[in-house]
Amino acid sequence: MSSQSNKTVTITDNTTGKQIKLPVLKGTDGPGTIDIRSLYKELGYFTFDPGFMSTASCDSKITFIDGGEGRLSYRGYPIEQLAGNSTYDEVCYLLLYGELPKTTQLLSYTNSIKEHKLLDEKMRRFFLGFRHDAHPMAMMVASVGALAAFYHEEVDVHDPVSRELAAHRLIAKMPTIASWCYKFALGQPFNYPNLDLDYTADFLHMLYSMPGRLRKPTPTIVRAMDLILILHADHEQNASTSTVRLTGSSEASPFAALSAGIGSLWGPAHGGANEAVIVMLKEIVASGKDLSHYIARAKDKDDRFRLMGFGHRVYKNYDPRAKIIRQICHDLLDELGDDNPNKPLLKIAMDLEKIALEDKYFIKRKLYPNVDFYSGIIFQAIGIPVSMFTVIFALSRTVGWLTHWMEMMSDPEARIGRPRQLYTGYTERDYLDINKR
Ligand code: CMC
């Protein structure tokens, strides 16, 4: 919970001369936050902040980011330590319950997740209704929303035990759903979970195996995927998490709230960026043009082209996740033989990284490669199709979305999210009969 510091900010209305003192709230880290809740009541003004550039929409104990310093922590633990020592299962437990688990707690959590991995068989028929070329993200938005149809009566959003069960169900079923989205696009049979495997290895098994051909991914690939899941597990109040909170604030089903969050994640300015990175790299390779042509386009204000995978709304320093994943990415690329078909694309990516890191335009604006730049390249290198990238991001972020939803639902001060607006349309006017318009 935030506390009130002894600082205040005074606002004076120059028209009426009325003055109010607003308290400055203090978190455990990060900048002070002016509490403007009484502003409208006292002065009759709203505040204007499109894109939430200066607005904290809630208080939260889950994840902390210092964008200037390039720091990220989950429940106080630096991302570097979690990436170096932990597993995705353990990070899920940490996010959901606030503390690192003891061995028995972790076992009971992973057993519960295994318990809920299967999808109702009727979901197969649901999947078969999609067009043959449906985008996996479209299938994921729809199928996660459809889960509400199976559990609607059962979920009591006001009961913590019921919320926990819904969270376990969603975390458990996401790999199954994600792999079915993939298998459907390939025209291959859906795989069922293998309960002998850990969460990440099982996901890769459901993705790669076929009847008669069980595929066990190498430990390097499992570790790379587990790391990507850890790094994407939460990122405080980003667009998709805020969407989940806003949707959930109306007491909607968590399945519906998650489906809305997945829709938000899909956009190329958010989770769709790693897909956009590969599309851009392919375009560069196919054009045969020099990289400098694309760098010039990225700088041109009259051109909408941007270097995908560069820049971040919050990090104005190196994205700490990018630092961790960059190493794995370089190691993986070193392991790939020169005859690997992805090599030309990956070489362009590495050249782009080097040029952008040395170019004045990018340095001045602090546009460093972000986590999606490298995750896109890793996915490409381990043979995951581009259209599945954001699906995997959604799978990893599920735990973050749910943790925020549970935090909000257990907050006695939480209310339905209802932003205000600065109205700039017509003032009131009279209706004109259709013949007189
Ligand atoms: N390429 C070229 N110029 C850029 C880029 C880019 N990728 N990103 C920002 N700029 C420029 C922008 O034109 C502006 O220049 P000026 O000051 O001369 O007008 C300046 O840098 C600041 O940009 P902004 O649009 O004010 O920054 P923002 O905080 O609103 O946008 C962003 C952040 C991530 C949407 C943007 O950097 C971008 O579109 N990047 C490419 C897409 C991408 O990689 N997105 C993934 C973000 S990380 C995933 C996640 O956490 O969800």
Could you provide a short overview of the structure?
With 437 residues, this protein is mostly helical. The protein contains 18 helices and six strands. Strand 1 and strand 2 form a beta hairpin.
Question: What general outline do the C-alpha atoms trace?
Answer: globular
Biggest sheet strand line-up: 1-2-3
What string gives the helices and strands in order?
A: EEEHEEEHHHHHHHHHHHHHHHHH
Oligomer: single chain
Class inferred from helices and paired strands: mainly alpha
Tally of individual helices: 18
The residue fraction in helices comes out at 40-55%
Strand content: 5-15%
| Poorly predicted runs | none
Q: Ligands bound here?
A: carboxymethyl coenzyme *A
User: Mean pLDDT, as a whole number?
Assistant: 92
Main β-sheet description: 3 strands, antiparallel
Question: What does this entry look like structurally?
Answer:
The protein is mainly α and 437 residues long. 51% of the residues lie in helices and 7% in strands. A three-stranded antiparallel sheet has the order 1-2-3. It has a three-stranded antiparallel sheet with strand order 4-5-6. Helix 6 packs antiparallel against helix 7. The longest helix has 27 residues, at 160-186. The protein binds carboxymethyl coenzyme *A (CMC). Carboxymethyl coenzyme *A binds next to loops.
